[in-house]
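Annex B. Sample input.
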Amino acid sequence: YAVWFFELLRLDDLRRQDITDTILASVVPDASFNLIKFCREHCAAEPLVVGEPGCHLGLAIDTDRPDEVGADRLVNAIAAGALYDKPAIVIDFGTATTFDVVDAAGAYIGGIIAPGPNLSVQALHLAAAKLPPVSIKPTAKTIGRNTVDAMQSGVFWGYVGLIEGLLARVSAELAQKPVVITTGGLGRLFHEQLPGIDHYDPDLTLNGLRLIHHRNQGH
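Annex B, continued. Sample output.
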């Protein structure tokens, strides 16, 4: 972490001495342990950890089990509620594809978790030895005339159909038409193919962390 992070700082003419505060949101316990240690030892800053009792979110969580909601999903919901009109739906393309819903009052009311596109490609490759790993991109035609095209079509257009279907069902459960924001590694790619997505925001999670840090000043 130190080698990677401080090299990025150097490329932007920043020094680690310029760091005054740190904030962390993670859903991987082993990574959380190491990142907390990194902040303490290399940034000289005790991290504010999203999800711990001392971290004030300023977000109403209206779900059956609020303690089960992943920190990354809460961070995205906070950013969406603060930066965009409400109600809002955030689609985050990570290991999982998550849909997170903020209602008209700004409360987090739940969402959807589906396997991510990269995970689906990996599963196909591992489960069937003759199926190669493929990149995720739109194909010119839905009907693939070779194995790679067929896999790419199935994964990409399959996810387009999944997103369209889930957005329609979630929107029908809300009283108002939601604003739809996408983020994550494949967010731009799917945004370009889905007219139902209003915004692509690659920095949504980082902005959510910034907002949480700001809300905790003085707490």
